[in-house]
UniProtKB/TrEMBL annotation:
EC number of this enzyme: 4.1.1.50
Lyase listed as a keyword: yes
Active site positions: S67, C81, S225, H239
Cofactor(s), names only, from the UniProt record: pyruvate
Positions of modified residues (Pyruvic acid (Ser)): S67
GO molecular function: adenosylmethionine decarboxylase activity
Protein's UniProt name: adenosylmethionine decarboxylase
GO cellular component, one term: cytosol
Entry binding sites for substrate: F9, E66, F219, E243
Sorted UniProt keywords: Autocatalytic cleavage, Decarboxylase, Lyase, Polyamine biosynthesis, Pyruvate, S-adenosyl-L-methionine, Schiff base, Spermidine biosynthesis, Zymogen
Catalytic activity reported: S-adenosyl-L-methionine + H(+) = S-adenosyl 3-(methylsulfanyl)propylamine + CO2
Gene Ontology terms: biological process: spermidine biosynthetic process; spermine biosynthetic process
Annotated pathway: Amine and polyamine biosynthesis; S-adenosylmethioninamine biosynthesis; S-adenosylmethioninamine from S-adenosyl-L-methionine: step 1/1
Length: 326
């Protein structure tokens, strides 16, 4: 029988979002003209590959062997888990966008991740955030790095640019969940579900944001990834590592909401995590005032850490919750 060590999978993702300055006068000024073979080459540097693809008018969405990639006219999002080497793509990405689209200006970048369960298994700079920051600093002059949460326990790292880059309304909401309920995790195995679509239906993921165009994959023997596309460049993406000794789920979306209460309630009801971390990022155009007192849905949750950051262009709320085992 394989040991727990051999079966360990690091579900925690590295997440990169890059906003490019887009040129109205250029016919090639759109990241979506970049051919798939170029993305495939770029992803090789991160040690992952495309396994599924869907698109709508505003966005191209790729399910990867390790999480997801989204491409819009002027925005690139890459989310990779396991022992991928995401930051190896950053310089080649900038060169690729320059050579194919003639775009050199970078409005903002966001590189973030939760602390890993097993950082020693990561490759190169990804073993610790200080080295990741060093790598990013070589590329960007005005980078700023932060740690939210407890440096010796659960925390969340962020690297962004210290500038007023993105002028259009923008927000990103993330729920990172771990210590999951085993019963719920069964759905994301081939033993219990036939396909990605079957798991999406059985779990109730299909009801989180109705009307989305969904591309879902169920891995063999277990594991699940989905991208959901909505009109006007909105998306959501869910990734599940169901193995009980390292269970982890992530939910991410840029859909705007006055309050995220309903969305959070739906996601928590599906996955039942014992611990979860929430980040809400919103720029001044889409200022989001998060008030913890309104958190009716978490009556049974304990807030362990709650922090609010006021950046030059964005506000960020970070909250870590734990729930008693019922
Ligand atoms: C790619 S998925 C989603 C990972 C995601 N970051 C998460 O939130 O957990 C990872 C899950 O799929 C399983 N899996 C099965 N085959 C895989 C493969 N070829 N590559 C990556 N993961 C695979 C892993 O064991 C794990 O349970």
């Amino acid at each position: 029988m394989a040991s727990v060590e051999e079966n360990f999978f690091e579900g925690t993702e590295k997440l990169l979002e890059v906003w490019f300055g887009f040129k109205t006068d250029a016919t090639n000024g759109d990241l979506r003209i970049i051919p798939r073979c170029e993305w495939e080459e770029l992803l090789k540097l991160a040690k992952c590959e495309i396994i599924s693809y869907c698109k709508n008018e505003d966005m191209d969405a790729y399910v990867l062997s390790e999480s997801s990639m989204f491409v819009t006219k002027d925005k690139f999002i890459l989310k990779t888990c396991g022992t991928t080497t995401l930051l190896q793509t950053i310089k080649p990405l900038i060169q690729l966008v320059d050579s194919q689209c003639g775009i050199r200006e970078i409005l903002d970048i966001f590189y973030s991740r939760k602390n890993f369960s097993r950082p020693e298994l990561q490759i190169g700079v990804h073993q610790n955030f200080v080295d990741e920051v060093g790598h990013l600093d070589k590329q960007f002059r005005d980078g700023a790095a932060y740690t939210l949460g407890r440096m010796n326990k659960d925390c969340w790292y962020l690297y962004t640019l210290d500038k007023h880059g993105v002028t259009q309304p923008d927000q990103t909401f993330e729920l990172l969940m771990w210590d999951m309920c085993d019963n719920r995790m069964k759905i994301f195995t081939k033993e219990f579900s036939e396909s990605g679509a079957d798991a999406t239906k059985k779990s109730g993921i299909c009801n989180i944001i109705p009307g989305a165009k969904i591309d879902d994959v169920l891995f063999e023997p277990c594991g699940y990834s989905m991208n959901g596309l909505l009109p006007d460049g909105y998306y959501f993406t869910i990734h599940v590592t169901p193995e009980s000794h390292c269970s982890y789920v992530s939910f991410e979306s840029n859909v705007p909401r006055e309050s995220y209460d309903e969305l959070i309630k739906k996601v928590l009801n599906i996955f039942c995590p014992r611990k979860f971390l929430m980040t809400v990022f919103a720029n001044r155009v889409r200022y989001f005032n998060f008030r913890i007192s309104k958190f009716r849905v978490y009556r049974i949750s304990l807030i362990q850490d709650h922090q609010f950051c006021n950046f030059k262009n964005y506000n960020l709320t970070y909250t870590l919750f734990s729930r008693p085992i019922l």
